[in-house]
Specification:
The strands form four sheets. A seven-stranded parallel β-sheet has the order 11-12-10-13-14-9-15, sandwiched between helices. It has a six-stranded parallel β-sheet with strand order 16-21-20-17-19-18, with helices on both faces. The radius of gyration is 31 Å and the shape is globular. It is an alpha/beta fold. The N terminus is likely disordered. Helix 9 packs across helix 11 and helix 10 runs parallel beside helix 11. The chain has 24 helices and 21 strands. Among the domains are: 98 residues, Nucleic acid-binding proteins (OB fold (Dihydrolipoamide Acetyltransferase, E2P)); 158 residues, Rossmann fold (3-Layer(aba) Sandwich); 157 residues, P-loop containing nucleotide triphosphate hydrolases (Rossmann fold). The longest helix has 33 residues. The structure holds adenosine-5'-diphosphate and magnesium ion (MG).
Length: 741
């Protein structure tokens, strides 16, 4: 490229240069860029369009061909929102947003239906490029639901006021009389046919401005982008160079270029992630060890004697898989997935008791205190009369209690510790921890990062880990969330379960619902009523306290009603749960603290108020609280869905009780991206890779990562320098690679 000898300031910019010094940016815009996460020139190059709009050449409004698709450009002269019936709420409620733009020659009417959001976007004085089918309506040219891009000439003028003749700034805005090209200079740039990048932008820093800045920068920046792959590596996988990929993303000649470029970046993203996992796994397998546990027929029999039932075939299979892993000195890293109520707890207990048989310790981590308490109770019951020492460690312990317990754990005077996340805090020191079970884990990142030390003073000894989840995870997803975790599955529920009848009803059916339930409860059944909040807020949603009070006064008069939520003290909550378990309470009005794990077989009825507010997985979990006993259970979701997604959720939950199918539906509704979000994985989100499209690419990246790590476990070879640097930057912290690499 010719710019290498360019003596202008642009020529001295490097990828690390703060964005402020890029041409056309300056201090004010640098602040706006910071809001988009863009701080350096490199960040800006990585700020890639989230979509493109195809623009045919623009046509003067008066020449727009009726009945054909065309593109016009003009200044908005007026706009109006006309709300639909019933305030425009709900589907099909209507409402329409109309606007009119003008160019040198005429006016064009625009209309968007069901487009309430347009109200905040489009205002008089803005310049728009619209593409759509041209119609003649009331003698006026009109486009219905056109695609559009908002231009920003005003903004460009405003940005220059810092250092330029103020007269110029007063010229550009509002000079609609002289036509749409008033922004100075940039006018005909858009008149060719082309794909226009649309960038993530803000109101103050619109996509058009970003586009122009990037366009100016590319000739300087692209030649500076080093590739971490050599030509042969790329050729084998049909990948363009990084520099080419960025050029094609910012200035694609056609759709194909966008695809090729995205494929390259997606590959890089997936490869880095798989490399991180592979490196970590290699490290665990080769440099760390876990206590090998003993196993024999006698031990097996001894453990099974503790269970009040015979294990199902699925449970048996999983137990065998676990036993095989646990006997090895290689740390186990296994995911156990099984639907709500499938009986994961005993399987975990089996593993923990193997640890106890080998005179080592085990820990069980639950996501909530309530669940930890319940595990403690039910496991204590199963171990009643044995010599196994078991303790509950939660945040509710008093300081002296906690100190005393920690001391016992450290001395090995406790065999099984049950607790919340607090268990993996630094202060808990085990004597010899062999097995860690993480129950109902939604935030997998925590486990990912923490390589828990097994023995004080021995940095290389770690426990075996079993992670349990009721949300089945598609293979692709587990590859990206966990890396190569081994997976065990319990597919079938224990025998004797009664199917749960599910009903989704509108709020105005409340009378019938509670009337019917009161009848069944009076005949001896127990019920949960779940609400999204503890106290009524300004949102006007029903809440635990007030709703419980109302129920007691009306339908449930004379029944024993109690409330459970996160604000209660542990001891109070435990007492209430125990009374419910003992059937001394008829109805439990609760928040989602009862969402996971709560196991009261006699409870056979559940009502969820404002069900549209809950996620699909959450609804499934909640419903899983019933259907655990001999009775035929009923679950009623009272819902007023106002979005398509909410309606889809209600439909899905009513259609099936199979957790695997629910998980699939959830994926469909929310998309992979959501499930892959930071919340779930604790990892930086994938920006380009889309697992619904890049499945093969993931397999390729996974294979390549393994080949690479097998040959060069820490990527210390000089040829991997750049790759390694980028890996550590991206995932070093999230995957805890610091002690690995
Ligand atoms: P989850 O997989 O949701 O954690 P749990 O471990 O809480 O399920 O088990 C749900 C219920 O099923 C419990 O009441 C448990 O005692 C019971 N259960 C588990 N395994 C069996 C079995 N093999 N036969 C009969 N009941 C079982
Ligand atoms: Mg459970």
């Amino acid at each position: 490229m010719s710019d290498t000898a360019d003596p202008t300031s642009a020529g001295s910019l490097t990828l690390g240069t703060p964005i402020q010094y890029a041409p056309g940016v300056g201090a004010r815009r640098a602040q706006l860029f910071a809001k988009l996460g863009v701080r350096t020139i490199a960040d800006l190059i990585k700020h890639i369009p989230h979509r493109y709009e195809y623009h045919a050449g623009q046509t003067p409004i008066l020449d727009l061909p009726i009945g054909q698709i065309a593109t016009a450009r003009g200044v908005v002269v007026n706009c109006r929102w006309a709300g639909g019936m019933g305030g425009g709420r709900g589907r099909g409620g209507g409402g329409r947003f109309t606007a009119q733009i003008r160019d040198d020659h005429g006016f064009l009417d625009l209309v968007w239906f069901n487009a309430r959001y347009m109200r905040d976007k489009v205002h008089p004085g803005m310049t728009m490029i619209v593409t759509g089918k041209v119609a003649l309506y009331n003698d006026q040219r009109q486009m219905a639901n056109p695609k559009f891009v908002l231009m920003d000439e005003d903004d460009e003028a405003a940005a220059d006021t810092d250092n330029v003749d103020p007269k110029q700034a007063t010229l550009a805005p509002g000079d609609g009389g002289d036509g749409g090209d008033g922004g100075g200079g940039g006018g005909d740039k858009w008149s060719d046919e082309r794909y226009r990048p649309i960038y993530p932008a803000t109101e103050a820093l619109p996509t058009g401005a970003i586009e122009r800045i990037i366009e100016d920068l590319l000739p300087t920046a692209l030649p500076q982008i080093d590739d971490h792959f050599d030509d042969a590596y790329r050729a084998e996988r049909d990948l363009p160079t990084l520099a080419d990929a960025y050029r094609m993303l910012h200035q694609p000649a056609d759709e194909d270029e966008v695809k090729r470029a995205r494929r390259r970046l997606a590959y890089d993203e997936l490869l880095l992630l798989q490399l991180g996992f592979a490196m970590k796994r290699k490290h665990v397998q080769t440099e760390l060890s876990a206590p090998p546990l003993r196993w024999s027929d006698a031990i097996d029999e001894h453990i099974r004697e503790r269970f009040p039932f015979k294990l199902t075939k699925d449970q048996d299979t999983v137990v065998r898989e676990l036993a095989a892993d646990l006997q090895k000195p290689i740390p186990m890293n296994r995911l156990l997935q099984g639907d709500v109520g499938s009986g994961k707890t005993v399987v975990a207990l089996y593993a923990m008791l193997m640890a106890v048989s080998s005179n080592t310790q085990a820990a069980l981590m639950a996501p909530t205190e309530l669940l930890a308490e319940q595990h403690f109770l039910s496991i204590s019951r199963m171990l009643d009369g044995s010599t196994v020492r078991i303790a509950l460690l939660t945040g509710s312990l008093s300081k002296p209690e906690r100190t005393a317990l920690l001391y016992k754990i450290e001395r090995g005077e406790v065999d099984i510790v049950i607790g919340t996340q607090a268990l993996i805090s630094e202060t808990v020191q085990f004597n010899d921890l062999a097995v860690v079970v993480v129950d109902e884990q939604h935030r997998f990142g925590v486990v990912q990062r923490a390589v828990i030390k097994s023995k004080a003073g021995d940095e290389t000894r770690v426990p075996h880990t079993l992670v349990m989840t009721a949300t089945p995870i598609p293979r692709t997803l587990s590859l990206t969330i966990f890396g190569d975790l081994d997976v065990s599955t319990i597919r079938h529920l224990p025998p004797g379960r009664q199917p749960i009848a599910t009903r989704v009803v509108a709020p105005d059916k409340e009378e019938e619902v509670y009337g019917y339930i009161a009848e069944r409860v009076r005949a001896g059944e127990q019920a949960y009523v779940v609400l999204p909040a503890i106290d009524e807020s300004e949102s006007g949603l029903k809440a635990v306290r007030s709703h419980a009070a109302e129920l007691e006064k009306t339908w449930f008069a004379g029944l024993n009603v109690a409330t459970v939520h996160g604000q209660l003290k542990r001891i109070t909550r435990e007492r209430i749960m125990q009374r419910f378990r003992d059937a001394k309470l008829d109805v439990l009005v609760a928040t989602t603290v009862i969402e996971v794990g709560v196991d009261v077989p006699n409870a056979s009825i559940m009502v969820v108020e404002h069900a549209e507010r809950f996620g699909l997985a959450q609804l499934h979990q909640l419903r899983g609280r019933v259907g655990r006993g001999e009775r035929k259970s009923l679950c009623v979701f009272i819902a007023d869905p106002t979005t398509d997604d909410a309606a889809a959720r209600m439909k899905a939950i009513a259609r099936t009780t199979d957790g695997f199918k629910i998980a699939e539906a959830d994926l469909e509704i929310r998309g992979m991206g959501e499930l892959l979000g930071t919340r779930q994985s604790g990892l930086p989100p994938l920006k380009v890779a889309d697992l619904t499209k890049h499945m093969e690419l993931l397999a390729l990246a996974n294979r390549d990562a393994h080949t690479m790590i097998d040959a060069d476990p820490k990527l210390t070879d000089a040829s991997h320098d750049l790759l390694r640097k980028r890996l550590v930057k991206q995932y070093g912290e999230a995957l805890g690679l610091a002690d690995v690499a």
